[in-house]
Structure formats: structure tokens, C-alpha cells
């Protein structure tokens, strides 16, 4: 039904929805026509084409992958520390093993050492005191008969040769006697002095006629080396000082002969103190 206003155009009645179903026999209000999908902008412009629709679309840009290589620095450091730790443990274990061996075994392990206790057992019998000059087959001597007076061996450094007869008695007490050629360079002599000076059961003196620059003696043992930097010098001292004594660790080294010269001093024999009971 249309309602007309006099003198005016025909007006469409307003339909108000009440949410109620229309009464029987009354038609429902017509739906508004749906807007066209993809309608263009006002003014007749074309809409943006969809991918896959007509026309060529822009190809998608592939993401750029940044390659991150493995960092080898920390791995190398870890490996190096591990190798170092294993090395330290190994050296420590070897030192403990070596330290647990009898000193005779450790002496045999010193490269180049001569063991006269095995080569000539009669040579190294102790307690054979004789006055006067004594001829020694091994020079510098490493044992055998000797003067009753010993050379002072409290880390004494002698700047001239000393009597073999007194020196051998010091060896019997557990001394390591280091000898060197008189023409050994001064810096080498100083290095030897630093190993000896002020240390009990050690003494140092020049010796004529050595076939090697430096020769070390203990009772029954000898080692010859070419220079004072040879690590075997320290090994010899550490292993044989005191240990090689055949009179025990308490054998005296003080109150001995302090004079230099190769002639033995027989007049001192009755003035030497008695050795302590071992």
C-alpha cells in the first residue's frame, strides 16, 4: 500500500524491523542487494588485483639466509687445555714413580753415568785410610783408599786444585765433588758455583787434565758433561748427594781440610774429629 502526499512524489514506506516474524500471509522485507565484491574506488579506478587473478602478480621474495659458520676458537682452546692437563698429570705421575724408586735405580737412569760399584767392587770399599800420596786409576777418583783427613765439604768452592786423598774421603761421607777444567769460561764456573756454594755435602774445584769440561764424582759414580747447563748435573746431585755415602747420612763434612794444593796433609790425621755413631 502506498501513501501519497498531496502534490509530492510518491514515497516508499519505511520498514522498521521489530525482530518478529511477519504475520501469516505478509511478505518479509526484501534484503538489500549485496555489494559487488572487488568494487573499484570511487571515481571508477581499478581495484588492486589479487594474486592469481587476472594480470601478472609480483613474485614473492625468498628470505635471505645468513650462513653462520662453526666457531672453532673455543673448541681449539678446550682441546689445548685438555692436552696440557693430561701432560701435567703424566709428568707428575712419572715424577712420583721416579721418586718412589730406590736411589740406585734413579742413578742408573741418568744418561752417561758410570757406575763403578758394578764395574769394580774392590775400588769402592770404604774405611781404607792411608798416609801419603795415593795413585788412582780413575781420575778424578771416585773411591778407594784415602787420607784420614777429609776435605771440608760444606758447600766449599775452591779456586785451585785440592788433594785427591782428602777429596775421596769426602766422597765416602756422601759428598758430590764437582770438578772442571781450569780454562772453563767464567760464566760456566759461576753457574757451577751457584749449585754448590753454601750447600752441605757439595764442593767444587778445578782439576787438571780432564777429558771433558766438567766431571762430577760421588762415591762409586762419575758423570762427565760438556757445559754447566746440562740438566744431568742437577739429577746427579739430587740422586747421589748423601745417598752415596757408605758412612751414613750423619758423616761429617765440616772440620775438614780447607787448604788447596794436591799434596795430602798427613800431619792432620790425628787432629780429625771422630765420626758420629750411625
UniProtKB/TrEMBL annotation:
Q: Which InterPro entries match?
A: DUF3105 (IPR021454)
Which keywords does UniProt give here? Membrane, Transmembrane, Transmembrane helix
Ranges of compositional bias, category Low complexity:
19-39
According to the lineage, what is the superkingdom?
A: Bacteria
Q: Does the keyword Transmembrane helix apply?
A: yes
Look up keyword Membrane and say if it applies: yes
UniProt feature, compositional bias: Polar residues: 257-278
Ranges for region Disordered? 1-65, 256-278
Report biased composition (Gly residues) as residue ranges: 40-55
Membrane-crossing ranges are: 75-97
Q: What is this protein's record name?
A: DUF3105 domain-containing protein
Q: From which source organism is this entry?
A: Micromonospora chalcea
Recite the lineage of the species. Bacteria, Bacillati, Actinomycetota, Actinomycetes, Micromonosporales
Amino acid at each position: 500500500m502506498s501513501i501519497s502526499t498531496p502534490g509530492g512524489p510518491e514515497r516508499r514506506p519505511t520498514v522498521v524491523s521489530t525482530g518478529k516474524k511477519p504475520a501469516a500471509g505478509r511478505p518479509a522485507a526484501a534484503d538489500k542487494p549485496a555489494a559487488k565484491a572487488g568494487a573499484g574506488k570511487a571515481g571508477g579506478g581499478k581495484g588492486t588485483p589479487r594474486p592469481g587473478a587476472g594480470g601478472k602478480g609480483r613474485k614473492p621474495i625468498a628470505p635471505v639466509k645468513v650462513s653462520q659458520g662453526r666457531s672453532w676458537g673455543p673448541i681449539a682452546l678446550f682441546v689445548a687445555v685438555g692436552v696440557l692437563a693430561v701432560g701435567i698429570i703424566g709428568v707428575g705421575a712419572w715424577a712420583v714413580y721416579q721418586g718412589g724408586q730406590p736411589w740406585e735405580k734413579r742413578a742408573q737412569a741418568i744418561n752417561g753415568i758410570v757406575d763403578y760399584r758394578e764395574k769394580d767392587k774392590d775400588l769402592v770399599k770404604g774405611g781404607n785410610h792411608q798416609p801419603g800420596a795415593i795413585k788412582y786409576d780413575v781420575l778424578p777418583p771416585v773411591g778407594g783408599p784415602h787420607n784420614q783427613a777429609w776435605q771440608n765439604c760444606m758447600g766449599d768452592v775452591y779456586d785451585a786444585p785440592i788433594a785427591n786423598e782428602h777429596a775421596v774421603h769426602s766422597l765416602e761421607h756422601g759428598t758430590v765433588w764437582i770438578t772442571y777444567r781450569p780454562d772453563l769460561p767464567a760464566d760456566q764456573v759461576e753457574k757451577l758455583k751457584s749449585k754448590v756454594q753454601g750447600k752441605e755435602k757439595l764442593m767444587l774445584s778445578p782439576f787438571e787434565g780432564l777429558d771433558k769440561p766438567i766431571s762430577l764424582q760421588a762415591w762409586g759414580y762419575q758423570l762427565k758433561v760438556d757445559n754447566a747447563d746440562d740438566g744431568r748435573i742437577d739429577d746427579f746431585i739430587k740422586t747421589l748427594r748423601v745417598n752415596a755415602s757408605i758412612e751414613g747420612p750423619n758423616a761429617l763434612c765440616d772440620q775438614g781440610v780447607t787448604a788447596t794444593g794436591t799434596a795430602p796433609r798427613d800431619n792432620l790425621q790425628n787432629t780429625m774429629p771422630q765420626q758420629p755413631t750411625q
